[in-house]
Structure formats: structure tokens, C-alpha cells
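Tutorial, part two.
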Amino acid sequence: SVVIIGGHDRMVSQYKKICKNYNEGKGIHSDECQPGQADLLVLFTNTVSHKMIRCALDEVNEQETEIVRCHTSSGTALTEILMQHVPA
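Running the prediction step on this input gives:
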């Protein structure tokens, strides 16, 4: 599962669509989950406070969850992150 922290409100539906399309192509079902349960945590650092980042990181077991920080919160950036960090 993938949890995204940050990004733009107007992009939420696009983020969900990108994740869904990527996961379905891999045969993976997508559900909403909490940061502590995620396989991949994406932090869009340009649109979220340092305090929120710290709170999210406090909830995550770093041995079980891969953490990716990205300054750009575009759909293309999310697609590239998924391609690099979600197994084929």
C-alpha cells in the first residue's frame, strides 16, 4: 500500500487514479491505510510542514515502510516514484 503525505488538494483524485492504475497493472488491490501500515510512504515536501513530516515519520516503522521524499508533487513525480519503488 502507498500513503501520500502532502501534495495539492486539487490533485487528490489524480494521485488516486495514478496509484490505482499502477497497482491494477501489477495485479495489486488498493485500499486506504494509515502511514504505520504502508509499504511505501511518499512525502511531498514542498506542500507539507516540517511538523507534519515529523508526525508521519513517527508513525512509520522504517524497517517495514520505504520512505520517499520528493519536492515536486506532480502526477509525473508520483508515477516515477511508483515505477522506482514498487516491485514489478
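The longest helix spans residues 12-25. In part three we will examine how such features are distributed along the chain.
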